[in-house]
Amino acid sequence: MTTDPLVIFTPSGKRGRFPVGTPVLTAARQLGVDLDSVCGGRGICSKCQITPSYGEFPKHGVHVADDALSEWNAVEERYDRVRGLTKGRRLGCQATVQSDIVIDVPAESQVHRQVVRKAATQRDIVMDPATKLYYVEVQEPDMHEPSGDLERLCKALKDQWQIEGVAAPLSVMRKLQPVLRKGGWKATVALHKDHHSKDHTLVDIYPGFDETPVYGLAIDLGSTTVAAHLCDLRTGLVAASAGIMNPQIRFGEDLMSRVSYAMMNKGGDQEMTRAVREAIDQLTKDIALEADIDPARILEAVFVCNPVMHHLLIGLDPVELGQAPFALATSDAMSLTSTELGLGAMNAAAQIYILPCIAGHVGADCAAVALSEEPGKSEDLVLIVDVGTNAELLLGNKTRVLACSSPTGPAFEGAQISSGQRAAPGAIERIEIDPVTKEPRFRVIGSDLWSDDEGFAEATKGTGISGICGSGIIEAVAEMRMAGILDASGLIGSAEMTGTPRCEARGRTHEYVIYDGIANGGPRITVTQGDIRAIQLAKSALYAGARLLMDEMNVETVDRVVLAGAFGAHISAKHAMVLGMIPDVPLEKVQSAGNAAGTGARIALSNIGARSDIEQIVHQITKVETAIEPKFQEHFVNANAIPHATDTFPNLSGIVTLPVVDYNQKNQGDGGGGRRRRRG
Amino acid sequence: MTTDPLVIFTPSGKRGRFPVGTPVLTAARQLGVDLDSVCGGRGICSKCQITPSYGEFPKHGVHVADDALSEWNAVEERYDRVRGLTKGRRLGCQATVQSDIVIDVPAESQVHRQVVRKAATQRDIVMDPATKLYYVEVQEPDMHEPSGDLERLCKALKDQWQIEGVAAPLSVMRKLQPVLRKGGWKATVALHKDHHSKDHTLVDIYPGFDETPVYGLAIDLGSTTVAAHLCDLRTGLVAASAGIMNPQIRFGEDLMSRVSYAMMNKGGDQEMTRAVREAIDQLTKDIALEADIDPARILEAVFVCNPVMHHLLIGLDPVELGQAPFALATSDAMSLTSTELGLGAMNAAAQIYILPCIAGHVGADCAAVALSEEPGKSEDLVLIVDVGTNAELLLGNKTRVLACSSPTGPAFEGAQISSGQRAAPGAIERIEIDPVTKEPRFRVIGSDLWSDDEGFAEATKGTGISGICGSGIIEAVAEMRMAGILDASGLIGSAEMTGTPRCEARGRTHEYVIYDGIANGGPRITVTQGDIRAIQLAKSALYAGARLLMDEMNVETVDRVVLAGAFGAHISAKHAMVLGMIPDVPLEKVQSAGNAAGTGARIALSNIGARSDIEQIVHQITKVETAIEPKFQEHFVNANAIPHATDTFPNLSGIVTLPVVDYNQKNQGDGGGGRRRRRG
């Protein structure tokens, strides 16, 4: 009696004995080894490539003979001739086991391959998308057994892929008969698996074996911008990224003004729904064009957005979100189709997943941040701040996670700032003010040079110097505070008091001139007392929200601050802390997570299990409602000072010494009126 | 120790002991007694009315005291004052058990009440529709527990009705928030249960307690006409019936000409789909108007139709149904929504159920006939013939059921008949020919008088005598055969040969004049040799189909023939048999089932279990494909004679003696040419 050959797979280490003649793919499947195949072992797809190893393997206790696998067969020879097989590789479905063998599964042959998400944190996304391609061979129709083409396709999926419960939307049904005939009863189908029911939807069908990639969109639907990543659903790689302005801006700059528009104008909500859906269609076309793909190959989309955007996207009147108790029509995650959402640019049967909302003010975008940043898995206490038009905050660690939203308004995005503009070429994004001369120097988007570097004028000739963006205004205000141009109460001193002619009178207050391009036909870019007030309101709201969560968590400090959002990626930790936007922590403990909401969307697009995860996670997050919490007002008022009226910032003090100035004592007009009158 | 009171329900006989103070409704629910309630026991809906019985019940071994139930309470008093409670009745949710009691549940308080379907067969439909109303009280939103309104509604359904897995389409989501607020967080919801998954869909929501009936449509979508019944989903009663011509007729009279239209004209299938959907919308509006209801209260529709109509309804190109192997795109039953089908007149979230097709030629209409007539439950061997533009046949008994379709063409409907018209006032529907005088008398639709009755002219003045309908032409041909005007080969004799001047020459053949209204400005209604040929083709196809099924079943006779279809209701058994349309059986064994397909649709609408039943039944039916069966041609040729060339009709011979005539021997032109040449 001889024993069957031993088959050992690396890197998994899985092993088992199989009869001589067993295809490697069959052995891998029986052992649960992660070896890909789209054609089901027919030698068509070449996804099951493996690398056999020969010789002695003391570690595994085997010797692998040169003829441990069957010789190359005709299928492998043809494949090699036509498409080229990497040296040393075999097709797992063709090569059969002859004697003990060690087989390596290269990364690109693994279904659940890992995609490095970002270098900074080395976090990975494991590819296990809801939508996958399957090659099937369907029985031809037979008058004596008159089942429908769909029923025979379903039978093929059951027999060849062990997939049951497949439903086909009417739009796909229309293609079914011609495609099956065109492909000679062979077809590649895209199936979407529902993460709850495990049922499948037939999203599309292609004749014969079709390995053209299929794609998903991860869409971050913000109040101001709509940003999308086009992801290859097999590899997880981003094929293209694009953004578009949210056209709802014409109905209102911020969320509450859009809710008001819906309240005041009959059908206004539907107008806004139409507008945003059209924008998503445009974005879909743009991104497909950029990646040079057929938009009908976009078979899935995942949306993250705040609650008002959420309701307007799915076509619900957001009016209840504008008044206490801020009731969502629905808070759970939603699975829809592009047709139901009226999105016409992607595949007509594309499957849409919208992440769950956490509360009436804390949306699916915050859920996506939670999915990406995983505060509930953090050992230390982390405060995650997603700064957009509204700010969402998450505070937590392994024991508990809290969330709230804070009405910062759009000042941090450069809106409602006198020289403000969105982050685009020509916008001032970095600024430094010399504490002695009080002279500024700055950088604009589009050039790496500082304004006092040689060649700056030349480098910025194309873009000009057009305004100041969100991160620029934060740096400007913080630098003004550090240079003694601004006092702790937020008052800009006069030229006389500050010793710089750049502090010019403007009515009864002062403004600081950063750049005067009038002589050259350009703008005059200043920071006005009004700008300071807008930033103060925004940062007070943000800080008060953080404090409210800290109260609820019963802590006085946090261990770590993560700044999320495109904006968070661009602001300097030091400046944010000088401004008192965030609680005092060691500077190195302030991290940027980039567009964490967008990353969360990509995770949910790439991994079906992440959908169940986040749906469970949001139920474990404790929501804190800022609007009804009396302490919020108190925290807000105390946070008005720069950096803060009562909280000490010991870590900040270790790095920066803020000038002790007070421009209010000298009766500098009405700008600081509130404080003056209170003290007077 | 005392034992709890005994509660006995009639007519079910269910009994159990319950603590003093238990509401009767609670006892009924715990025992599984079929006692209705929409409001869940809140004393609002009054559906749970019961009749207590008092005194001695030797059969049950109990004595019921006068105070066996609690006294009338305020809820019952108010209900009686406002709406009136039938004497002796109590509200089951208010009356509580005090001592042993016998309680009768009247029929109208049963959920699963039986609706008498038709007097003829005394078959019942048990009401258990997929869509039902439920009253719920929903928790108000709370900022500290910020779930969505939908999630709280679902929780209420789970807590108050033990219903889980409820999904809401976006169109209903839009109503959710305003309706819940309007009803003060009380609402009546219409839920549709999927008969496979048991999941529910929220079809509509109404503020507060709303007992306005909700409806379903049972639609028989025929090639020529679309017929609908509007059924109250609670009572099962038909509130209105209506019909409309199928506007696809303008693309082709019969099915194959419509398939041809789709093949020859790009987008032709979509044109036909639009046309039929518009007609269904119009029919929906008509029927709602007739019943004086809001069409948005139509929450469900069930469709039965042949395969070509099926594909055109759901928007699929029927081209494959026009050529072997007649592959259906899908054969299984379908569950859709009115929005998916583009039906705009009923509720936007109305749930559509389409019965399964049996084969490429045997559609959901035939499945509906099987559901209604249940050949698979028959003790004797029954042949069911559904005569429409095509004929579908079912042959079976408890052991086995066979099905086929036979291409009769539209002659039986009066189409392609020289004086033919559809069954409408003025059409000749009955005819008798005196075998001695060869003189006809007839009746037209709209009058009960015969043409030789006094007052006939007066009675038909309004309608006129306009043509001859399907049942009329069958009687005419059979009567001509019985009167010796027509020979067994189907040749009309000349005036000389038949002895009546009503046999007039028409070219080289003859026609029989039934009515000549030319002098009065009316039509001249005749039966031409061409008409005879059309009827012969149709009846040969029908008979050949039946014989093919009998061959497959290995029988020479059947026990019983059921004629289904509106047409089947109007033709006389004797005439059908003289013609040789159906196999020879005793005349009393020929039964009419009326519109059995429409009845099948009503059954599927009224009883959710019937959907699973028919889906299982169709898989057990053996399909026989007439088009590829060589014996079909042989049977067809033999069936060309009237009644038949080879089969004896012993039962018919016992009633009718057909004249032995042969008009072919005398060389009567080309009309009988085929036979003549073969014999010559």
Automatic annotation (TrEMBL), chains A, B:
Stored InterPro entries: 2Fe-2S_ferredoxin-like_sf, 2Fe-2S_ferredoxin-type, Beta-grasp_dom_sf, Corrinoid_activation_enz, Raco-like_middle, Raco-like_middle_sf, RACo_C, RACo_linker
Residues covered by the 2Fe-2S ferredoxin-type domain: 5-109
CDD domains linked: fer2
PANTHER family (alphabetical): IRON-SULFUR CLUSTER PROTEIN (PTHR42895:SF2), IRON-SULFUR CLUSTER-BINDING PROTEIN-RELATED (PTHR42895)
Protein name per UniProt: DUF4445 domain-containing protein
Organism: Marivivens donghaensis
Top-level taxonomy: Bacteria, Pseudomonadati, Pseudomonadota, Alphaproteobacteria, Rhodobacterales
